[in-house]
Amino acid sequence: MRMMLPTLHERRSVDRALQRFFLTHRPADFRRALAAICRFYNVKAPTIEWYEYLDWGKGAGRTWENGVIQLVHPENWKRGRKYNTMKQWIHTLHHEIGHYLFWTDAERKADLFAAGMMQGVAASDSGRARSPGSAAAKTPARARLTGTRRSVARRRAAG
What we know:
Elements: H1 8-24, H2 27-41, E1 47-51, E2 61-63, E3 68-72, H3 86-103, H4 106-118, E4 124-125, E5 128-129
Parallel strand pairs: 1-3
Antiparallel strand pairs: 2-3, 4-5
């Protein structure tokens, strides 16, 4: 499986904005870079919380299930770190954005996985496989998934 990424032109634009933010600490540069990534993946921008340090200086970023990303601010990036380059900070940001992206739309991804696992597997009635020439043994060229999530709105009954 190949990952969908923005074009090289868009990635370079994001990189330039993040480099400017690292050097000047202008929030507009950071927002511009984050908006470009979120626009490409069609997701809402995550909430970013800035910290002087995380995990006593060991961690550089953390992403939570509720979409909040905690990051060490570039002003504090060089304090007490072995790897304190601009490139490493940008890599950390992309890593946390990756967590954010992969936690979104979990139902659709699970449906696609299930459809892929079932593609090419012959259906069996009462444990016996269909003959290779039967029409029912042929799988559709592509599984059609609507992406509608009906189970989200219903509350689960307790007990």
